[in-house]
Amino acid sequence: xxxxxxxxxxxxxxxxxxxxxxxxxxxxxxxxxxxxxxxxxxxxxxxxxxxxxxxxxxxxxxxxxxxxxxxxxxxxxxxxxxxxxxxxxxxxxxxxxxxxxxxxxxxxxxxxxxxxxxxxxxxxxxxxxxxxxxxxxxxxxxxxxxxxxxxxxxxxxxxxxxxxxxxxxxxxxxxxxxxxxxxxxxxxxxxxxxxxxxxxxxxxxxxxxxxxxxxxxxxxxxxxxxxxxxxxxxxxxxxxxxxxxxxxxxxxxxxxxxxxxxxxxxxxxxxxxxxxxxxxxxxxxxxxxxxxxxxxxxxxxxxxxxxxxxxxxxxxxxxxxxxxxxxxxxxxxxxxxxxxxxxxxxxxxxxxxxxxxxxxxxxxxxxxxxxxxxxxxxxxxxxxx
Length: 385
Ligand SMILES: Nc1ncnc2c1ncn2[C@@H]1O[C@H](COP(=O)(O)OP(=O)(O)O)[C@@H](O)[C@H]1O
Ligand SMILES: [Mg+2]
Description:
Elements: E1 4-13, E2 16-22, E3 27-31, H1 38-50, E4 69-77, E5 82-89, E6 95-98, E7 101-103, H2 105-108, E8 114-117, H3 123-126, H4 129-143, H5 145-168, H6 172-214, E9 221-226, H7 230-233, H8 241-254, H9 256-262, E10 273-278, E11 281-282, H10 283-286, H11 289-311, E12 316-320, H12 328-341, E13 344-348, H13 356-360, E14 363-368, E15 371-375, H14 377-384
Parallel strand pairs: 3-13, 3-14, 8-12, 12-13
Antiparallel strand pairs: 1-2, 1-4, 4-5, 5-6, 6-7, 9-10, 10-11, 14-15
This protein binds adenosine-5'-diphosphate (ADP) and magnesium ion.
The site of magnesium ion has 4 residues, from helix 1.
C-alpha cells in the first residue's frame, strides 16, 4: 500500500499565481530551467506533510509578491482519502484544514508522509549535528505524534530553563526553581532519546541492507545514535527511557556549575548526533563525495521503508534535482524501486538522464515561470535537448 498525492492546487504560493495539477500515482517528472518554480512545487508538497517549510521560517516569503495570502491544497489518496489545506496570510495566523475543517498542527501532521531528497541532503553527512537531528526529527514526527508533542514541549522547557539559568547566577529564588525544571527536562529528554535510539537502530539495519545492494556488496554502512553524553555512548545500548532519565539527572548534576556560568542548558538531546560509518570509518572525514552521496541515498530509502513499517503505507518521495548527480546504475536502481513502491515526484532541468522505459510510465510536466503544463509524448524528445 502507498499513499499518493492525487491533485495539487496552489494559489499565490511563491511564484505560482494559480496552478492546478492532477498527478500520476507512480512517477511525476517536472522539467524546467532554473528559477522557474521546481523547488517551490516540492516545497508546497512538503508543507502539506509537515505544516511548515524546510526552506524558511518566515512564512510571508511563501506568499506571492504583493498578494495578501497563499493557499496550498492537496488531495491525498490513502486508506482514508483526505483533503489538506494550508493557508498563509500576511495579516492573520496560518490556518490548517483537514477535509475543510480547521485543525491544529498536531492533528494535521501525519496525514501525508514524505521523504525529501535534495542536493542539500548531503549535509546529513557533511553538515552539523543540528542538520542530522533535523532530518531525523522530521522523519519521526511524521509518524509518531507523541514524539512530536514531546519534542515541542522539550524545546519549550529548554527555552524557559535557559531563561532561569541566566537569572540563577544573581537570584537565589531562580536557583531554587531549578530542580523542578530539571525533572521536567529529564522526563521529556529521556522519552525523546529512547525513541531516537530505537528509530536509528532500525534505520541503520534497513540502510545497511540497501547500501549493500547499491554498492554490489562492496561497502558496509552503519549509522549510530550518539547521545549528547559521550560517556554514555561509549557504553552498550540502553534504549530504555529509565536509563536515559538517570543519565540526564546525573549529567545535570555534573554540569550544574557550568550551566549557571554559561547561562544555558548544556545537557540533553538538543545536543545529540548521528554517526555514519562506511567500513568502520567515519564517513564525514574519510568517505569520498560519491560514497557520501550513496550513503545519503541509502538513508533516504531506509526512511521510506521505515515509514512504511510504521504506517502500513509508503510515503511520497520528493527528489529535487538529484538525478543528474547519481551515476547511471544508481539512477536506474532508484527509479526501479521507487516505481514499484512509492509515488515519486522528480524535478530536473533536462530529461537526458531518464530512459525511454522510465518515461513511458510517467507523467511529464513542463514548468515555466510558475506555470505548469502536462506534456504529451511528442514533447518529450524536445525536452530531452
Ligand atoms: N514569494 C514569492 N513571490 C514570487 N516569486 C517568488 C517568491 N518566492 C520565490 N519566488 C521566485 O521563485 C523562483 C525560484 O523558484 P524555485 O522553485 O526555487 O526554482 P527552481 O526551478 O530553480 O527550483 C525565483 O524566480 C523566485 O524569485
Ligand atoms: Mg530548485
